[in-house]
Amino acid sequence: MQTARRIAAIPPYLFAEIDRRIAEKRAAGVDVISFGIGDPDLPTPDFIVEELARAAGDPSTHQYPSYFGLPAFREAVADFYQRRFGVALDPSTQVLPLIGSKEGLAHLPWAFVDPGDPTLVPEPGYPVYEVATILAGGEPVHLPLSAERGWFPDFGAVDGAVADRAKILWLNYPSNPTAAVATLDQFEDAVRFAADHDLLLAHDNAYSEITYDGFVAPSVLEVPGAMDVAVEFGSLSKIFNMTGWRIGWVVGNPVAIEALGRVKTNIDSGIFNAVQRAGLAALRSDLPHLPGLLATYQRRRDRIMDVFWEAGWKVEAPKGALYVWLPTPPGESSVRFTQRLLDDAGVVVAPGSGYGPSGEGYVRLSLTIPDARLDEGCERVRKALVGR
Ligand code: MLT
Known about the structure:
By secondary structure, this protein is of the alpha/beta class. The protein has two domains: 5-43 and 289-386, Aspartate Aminotransferase, domain 1, CATH 3.90.1150.10; 46-284, Aspartate Aminotransferase, domain 2, CATH 3.40.640.10. The protein is built from 13 helices and twelve strands. The strands form three sheets. It has a seven-stranded mixed beta sheet with strand order 2-8-7-6-5-3-4, with helices on both faces. It has a three-stranded antiparallel beta sheet with strand order 9-12-11. Strands 1-10 form a two-stranded parallel sheet. It is globular, with a radius of gyration of 21 Å. The model has no long low-confidence stretch (mean pLDDT 96). The chain binds D-malate (MLT). D-malate binds next to loops.
């Protein structure tokens, strides 16, 4: 059977591959501890689950949902933006519900990228930006990130002619995988760059509420003029421990929202209305679970950092996202260190090189691992670092 050329152009999804390796080890009897995928281990808050149960018992939710989402869900997203970021959104033209933000990110290039068009992809980065560009026939152009620049793009180093031809500038702060955060000043630079080069700025803000040490993550739409050039993706997954529910949104520039909506209405039939009703209950709440959730992640972050600090690593604890992003031991590549941890310690981490060439020399550890397993995993990593 002959598959399309575009399939040869994309790799297996990083975590599909990691899951395969974990399954192999477990089948061989290894007690694997995974710091791999960022998938919250704590349950969805009860009030959201209860709302889902109520809504699922209402037969009116059993038919096709509206293509553009429940008006009440779109209003709840707009209200959340007003409350949280001070950004006013028109729920009918500037908000579109998604089957998880990954779905919208993956479909966005279909609305903006013609064959051969570049998109500007900061790397290391969430792999979907690059793969979605390729699937739409576009050409990802890497913007290499570095620790020295706080894992934020150096727009001054981008070839202006390429930027002029490009269609999308992808950004993601708090960042997966680097856990870097960005300030409003940095977003201002990005908005200016996007406006100067007629780019759609697509900001993935899935981790907006997952921040530490008092840092409050901004929305790119807080920048004056951003609505002319930007869309921002959000998700209930990480904020409300709802990765399995598949519900998110995109907000911002109405032309972009309409174009993505047109793609989606042709290929999907929306989100189960009961999930949307539960999602709007989540967004309308005062996020009662969040302080406890952040305290848990911050404690886990500090536990992992202690291991690396004691082994001599001189790096700062990250201020956002569900991850720590750490250099590998001197002279050891991402893949080699990842493989050694798996073979010698039964510990899974994500190799930095899986997120782009500039991720070489780093690994990502997720904080979404129950405390007892985290302690055991940290002890195994400690032994692997200090050799005893
Ligand atoms: C990750 O571990 O990178 C994320 O959980 C994947 C995702 O958000 O799709």
